[in-house]
Structures
1.
Amino acid sequence: MMIVSPGLFKHPSRSYSIVGVGLLGTFTYCHKYKINRVSFSSSIPSYYHCRATLSTMMEEVKPEFDSDKAAVLVNELRKTFNSGKTKSYEWRISQLESISKMIDEKEKEIVEALRKDLSKPELEAFLSEILMARSSCKLALKELKQWMMPQKVETSLATYPSSAEIVAEPLGVVLVISTWNFPFSLSLDPVIGAIAAGNAVVLKPSEIASATSSLLSRLVGEYMDKSAIIVVEGAVAETSALLEQKWDKIFFTGGARVGRIVMAAAAKNLTPVTLELGGKCPAVVDSNVNLQVTSRRIVAGKWVCNNGQACISVDYIITTKELAPKLIATLVSVVEEIFGKDLMESKERSRIINSFHFKRLVNLLEEDKVSNKIVFGGQREESQLQIAPTILLDVPEDSMIMQEEIFGPLLPIITVERLEDSFAMINRKPKPLAAYLFSDDEQIKRKFVQNICAGGMAINDTILQVTVPTLPFGGVGESGMGSYHGKFSFDAFSHKKAVLYRSFAGDSPTRYPPYTPGKKKQIKALLSGKLLNIMLALLGFYKD
């Protein structure tokens, strides 16, 4: 469903439509508004229906997908989970194969939806969205049997004779709330982990990326088991209704403000959460680097990566005063090489997602203490939702652009006398989701890894750490909690159950009262770890 805003209704003579899509054949979804005497309706067979009436009086009628409807949905999914259906290896594999098939067969539709939402270039859409989701799915298909196997562990003498194992069991019915900047891969990636772990899943995609949200709803309904995997579309009202329910896990990707809301809602039911948030990700550039390679990798991690609209994008650079002019010149050269001299005409960059975020970015640029710091770029066109790659030099640390996550094509460069001074600057800010260092100095590398706290790091590159499935991806502090990717996704949606096996043999009387002095000596000997004492205890030398 789309958000209704007064700005949509400037022409009373025209007709408009809103489409709400949800659980096939289960709910009727109605949302009614009154603004400017415009009326419209739209319906899709077997899906939610969305109807609205608009007049001069603003009046909102309670949507039918409310907390009660959400409760019905969760209860149905819980029945499916309790039946044991989702726990079997065969069901998990069949659903993962369906996702893989869906990605292969619908690649063109996925690319088109991403173009509508963000004007993503085809190659970027393939690499950052389709390939990432496909790789996650293939890895899960390949490794699932191994992931599901109980992990044998050693036992202690106190339980002899015995054996023990750790069993990964699904959590139950889980909620995945996704975001708009990578609306396909960041929706499917956690869902793949949840399915691999054997859970029933509700996916709530972002309404801001409406084309991809609608596509996911249709494709999941077409390819997946509708009794266990559901897409619920909508905006604040629908998300709020979902958050009022008791889940066995909530996985949220988005900003810290909404993350706090999600966590507060989860706390009411003691529901565990994974929060994939963001922050100001720094890149520190030493003077001993290959400037050409460094600049290309920074450009790739800033403007090529969804035009800076990525939680792991380079947010700002710290370098020495001496190196800054050379670094800026090389960055400009690389930007023009990749995007052309006329930056606003380039088709190789995604656009800003919507006018709200466009205006937010312009406000960052137009702040009094910042507007005169632009050394490259700065052009903008609101009708196209485009802002050129922009470099700023030595903006004040207390400016808005250095206080909040930029999430766009603006790149401040801050200079310091010594590179080590950058560590204190980074540590004054909340812990970022990612931190980057470009240096050939092994001592600087060690200090950076030891002294900078971040969700993840890359040395002499940007963003590629998220493509390594053996590395966890997640934040720390205000950049999030929990992690996923590869087996970490399976673990994120699993409970590690401790299981101890014993026979009826070896039932030592020392564990039972009365605890005589001789028994106490025997217990101390058994727990001492010294072989002679243990042998004496087992042979019964410690007696009253």
2.
Amino acid sequence: MEVSVIGSSSLAKIRTSWSELSSYREIRFCNFQKRVSLLHNTRSARWRNSGLSFTLNAVQSSPVRSGRLPRRGSSSKPKSLDGVRVFVGLPLDAVSDCNTVNHARAIAAGLRALKLLGIDGVELPVWWGIVEKESMGKYDWSGYLVLAEMIQNAGLKLHVSLCFHGSKQPKIPLPEWVSQIGDSEPSIYHADRSGNHYRECLSVAVDEVPVLNGKTPVQVYQDFCESFKSSFSHFFGSTITGVTVGLGQDGELRYPSHRQLASHSNILGVGEFQCYDKNMLNRLKENAEATGNPLWGLGGPHDAPSYDQFPNSNHFFKDNGGSWDSPYGDFFLSWYSSELLSHGDRLLSLASTSFSDTSVTVHGKIPLMHSWYKTRSHPSELTAGFYNTVNRDGYEAVAEMFARNSCKMILPGMDLSDKHQPQESLSSPESILAQIRTVCRKHGVEISGQNSVVSKAPHGFEQIKKNISGESAVDLFTYQRMGADFFSPEHFPSFTHFIRNLNQLEMFSDDLPEEEEIVESVLLNSESNTHMQAA
């Protein structure tokens, strides 16, 4: 599920939300409706009187220095539970397609708030389609360099996600020159059974095929990583501590098999196999012929359901007697998953090699395909590329791949619990998470965690704490994602409470800044810099 980000309809809301927090002290005992009304009237009037307003236009920002953080008593930083570092993701569209910083003032105020709260750092999505937009080898890192300096000046660490995919919301396409190639040769994209191409990432079958103006995608990704390393070298070690390499749809190691909810409910359907582009079909045909069964290479399973359908709507995924549990099913699913694993291995190896001479750690992300986990066939995992069924552990080979490349694994869904899933989905996020953790421990792969959605319910934060502490401790947890919902009065106080509860303090609790001190300092800093920019 995609998290809300700062967009045109919510920019004003963020201004109001931060204004609400700044006057929190004088109305802390008021009920929520009175708080909203009072703060809107007082703080919004001050913005209007200043003659300033936030606009949708991208802002080219100068770095904002954080200054001294207000603390009562000791200024030492609290140590997190079990040494867990906590990061917060920046908006997906933090940098515009014109390479300027979107919502620069809001982000600057947000960075200040995170620092005062004791957050260790932020995660920044860096988009292939923005940096290398116009032509192959022509890189423009300017917007991201400005953001990196803002983050450094705020005293936060930075984890960079290199996004070799596109986004539908907000709209961030692949580079223009790649899209032009795709217009004339759509087989560079994955295709489903109906011939519909998914244009937000390239097919795993073209990794080593020179389809990009004489270069292979792997070569283009390699050049991108080298340019990034050169351009941001002065941030490595001091500010940039980690890099995630994008592996597929939404940055995860997966086929783009799930594109819509079931039409008759809010439950995810089983998805569709993505093996119908020309290059995937050629590889399937070769593999079938090599095993002596050429008829198995004519296409994907003919009896599999479509995207929004449930497992029993057709024969392939049926628990008892389904084609998945046949010699043909084993052949196809083994081939389909091996293609994805080979793709992941190539990109993790590329990133591990590229950054081997730096101090950063390399990460890759896999999805948590928890729908239908309680069935025997696990259809959502199968269509996404993970050959994991009641009879077979599909994550063993994934963990081996991460271990081989000395990479850490990012797992989303740390906020999900079984009891809050629709009963009809036969879902079990807790079971699949436990399964993946087990094979990672076996192969010595370290896990980093993420949530799936900005949580406004206490049980989401409770589940996160359970999943990242104690015997389940992770080294890094990234909360996704900064934006309108994140700083809303319905969410931010709960997030603040979660962070305070997560921390094991080596000081008295009154050594920490109160919440109103945090937000007042943020607004002071924000207004000061706003007036400076206006001048």
3.
Amino acid sequence: MASSTAANLWVLLGLGIAGVLLAAKRLRRPARPDNGAFIARLELLPPPQPPPPQARHPLTRLCFAIADAFHVTGYITSFGSLEWAKTHDAATQTSLVVSSLVDGGAMCVGKTVIDEMAFSIHGENKHFGTPTNPAAPDRVPGGCSSGSAVAVAAGIVDFSLGIDTIGGVRVPGSYCGVLAFRPSHAVVPNNGVIPVAPSLDAIGWFARDPSVLRRVGHLLLRLPYADIRQPRHFYIADDCFEMSKVHARRLTQVVTKSVEKLFGRQVLGHVNLENYLASRIPSLRNNSNGHGDSKFSSLLALSRAMQFLHKHEFKDQHMEWINSVKPAVDACIVGNLSDDGESTINNSHDARKEVRAALGALLKDDGILVIPTVLGCPPKLNARELSSQDYNVQTSCLTSLASMSGCCQVTVPLGTHDKCPVSVSLIARHGGDRFLLDTIQTIYATIQEQVDALAKSNVSSKQAMSEEAAEAAKEKGNIAFKEKQWQKAINFYTEAIKLNNKVATYYSNRAAAFLGLASYRQAEADCTSAIDIDPKIVKAYLRRGTAREMLGYYKEAVDDFSHALVLEPMNKTAGVAINRLKKLFP
């Protein structure tokens, strides 16, 4: 009896171990050749080099891949669907952009996986399998151009082409940690590419190296040589960074420090994009759909307008095939193809025109808008949030800016957060593609230096949160100060100083509030603290000079105003104060 019981225990133990091993095997994704990025390998070889003294082909020695929406002579374009492939013939002509790249010296080595019918931005495909994200294997690679992003991230090719309608290049670029460029709408010809939603479609490309990104761009955009033009304005969209699940400071400080180092602090600015768009795009009010009271009602309305255009134009292009073939199309596609009224489509087209004009007015020829590319880290494979309406709408809020305005945008990797890639995006006006490519070429190395410095500094998340909370307290203090609520402002500035006592502005601002209460000694002490931290803070010298004048320390006050004038020779406040004191006390 005992031996029988023991035997049964061993059997149960063995079954338990086998079950654990089987579960572990299921959880581990099997390794696939090329990370599952390709559906077909091919070779399109460039022409021979021209004889000297002519220049070599601009893309010599580079190889690239193309998303499976680009036609290649003799190959069936499957458009992310086996059923599409079965019902279409092989292409008789190669896509114009592919031919241009090959003629430019690059070799095309294969066609890559895209989301079914290039509809989604997740990167999952039931027909060909989901490509494995090299930067985060347990996370989605992003779509629709998932395979192209993966091929670059894995180092298989130097660059690759993708389709970006509602984020199909920018999102996988962010999730896989590579550079991704969406050009201005309609500046790259789309001959020989299956359309998704023509008014939103753009041919984009991925690269790990900014010089490769720029070389490809110069060829596709047919740009002649010109000197690099420096940006004069960088606008940080603060409200957009509030949407991000990654701490805003983690994303923005790398950009701000890089910009300050290369171009100076004076080019940095901030914008509340929600308020700006609300004042400039009246047609979005017709698309509020019950979100009029939302903090991001205009961005949500812009996202909704993009989604309307996306599904409306997709239906125009492909509903006839879906109805005739009746394929087992993914539910996320069919479920999004309900009818919408003509007025909704017209409002969405109006929004496109208005948002292009609005961003053009903000950015002009020399401005860059900085936003998060996506909400945060890439979602896990098969995660529930991928089918969440909130997730898709909020992600679309960010991608809709370039899709609807037709502006150019580049995704810039910023290292990792929680072991996953994170990024920001830079946006320039429609037609500012050369300017944006030149800017990323100039700033990229410095951004990566700042990313490395941030990683090495190992700043704790608690400290980062304290710094962010200090900034929030300062902003509240500024609001109270403008309303002349001096004591309330002092309390907020004091809170900011407790959270981070190494910022001169906090002391200088509190000094200004103390002056409002006629507390001159406290104002003088705060200004001295500010100057100890930053000897070049002009406002602290002006405020300490004012406090010392009121305390009767006239010589010291003149010294402070004079120092402010040395730092800022055109400062009228300092000049007037010095003249006044010299007349009163010659």
4.
Amino acid sequence: MTATIVCPSEADIVICGGGGAGCVIATRLAQARPDLSILLLEQGPDNREVKRLNRPLDSLFWLFQHNPYLKWIDCEPEQELGGRQPRIPVGNILGGGTSINTLMYNTPAASDFDDWNQPGWSYGDLEPLIRKESSMCLVEVEHSVSYGEEFAKACRLVLGDAKECENITTYRMGHGFGRQPKLITSDGKRSNVADAYLHPCLAKKLTVVTGVTIDKVIFKGNEAVGVKVIGNNLPSASFGTNEKYTKTVKANEMVVLTCGALGSPAVLERSGIGSAEVLKAAGVEVKVDLPGVGHDLDDHQLICPMYRATEGYYEPFDRYARGDKTVKEPVDEEYERTGKGIAASNGFDFGMKIRPTKEEISSMGPAFEKYWKRIGADKPDKPLYSNVILPYFYSYRPPPEGKYFCIGGFHNYNVFCRRLPFYEGEEPDSHPRFDPKSPARLRTSDDPNRTDKPVEEDVIPYSAEDDRVIELYVRENVATAYHSIGTCAMRGRDAMGVVDARLNVHGVKNLKVADLSICPSNIGSNATSIVLLIAENAARIILQDLDAMNGVRHVSAKL
């Protein structure tokens, strides 16, 4: 494998986007077909240039400190969110999100893939690939936050019939709690897809170019024959100069877009593939009227309420985040010497997946009952809600003085936290502003309302006014979980689809999309395990198609 900032003029397969999907596909193709020249193009720099990203805890807190390897996408103001303008980050470095994310590993329900209803993409089809992707990246680490038993005890009080298990990240676990695996290597470093797949690859005809932006796909008739790229105005991304310029790269066999759910549809639109109305308004000549391009962006809703914790109860993550030298220096010294300690962790050690009870379903009204019946009532592997407990202040706000913990989840489930013995009340700015007289009011360390009783014996009653306050709070605080999918959906063209089950873009030839944008419906998990499975299956499909194409050419030559 050759890594460079000098872009060659042609390759057999041109893969556009060096995130998780691109790294996997490039590696698998190069390993299986060493006779083919494989070119992987990435806008950001080589991840090996950024040593800080290897350090799990330090790189996680860097997310909240203007990490330059994140690119922020500003959305339009949203009326349903009180006029807020959501922002979505994407990885801008080789390895994509896996090089800069929170190092959390989770898996969806097996039935999520069956729900796609696409040939070759059922859970049964994908299951043989799971061992390949998990063995490349997933490693358990030695350090574990010291409140594990307290977490388990609280879950037993709250969840009742939920299964207590050693590992909650299985494709069949829909209702349980236990340990949360993470993407950290056995020597205490971030496990990202570039390091796990790409860099160890010894294929001589694999070339990785960093510092190039994909402008558009080049066509001859309706066949993709290459891409136009732009050299960036950055030292690590400049084709050897500091000035932007363009270059056309020929693709002898195929172009594969792996620019992610926010990047791939933009490349298609710049190439003239998308809604004719949108393209004409932007002054782009329409090549294929494909209204589904960029249309169905989906994600998970995330709220992270923070709670005060008893000082000294568990490891000093907050003091590390604030840069307290009395904590940070010895922790970093231990990490440099041994690769262990809290610096070798992300703190995401325990989590849960929850399905609603019959009483909860009924209490949420007929609209929810109809939704749940459609989505997951008869699918026991499918949770409604997932979360992890974090032993620190998890926010883009600067961490305040004191000790905190956070429940980061796809829905807010406040009943859990009062049953932790180190709970000292809520952090006010991350919670609903209940009336001080309400039983649901925010608590302080002087009035924590702590309990060790089961839920049914100690329920906080919520009034209609409390519900109104919660709704307002959600509108003001809910964010995406940065798990963007669905913008080039794998469906029929008449169903707002963009690619078919073989990942071919409708209406053209020799152009595939193979990243999270192809998901035709949502997946109940963090993105890493999903993108790895998509990429492994995409590589298998591409190899099959290449064999078929070569067979046709061989027959034609004989004729």
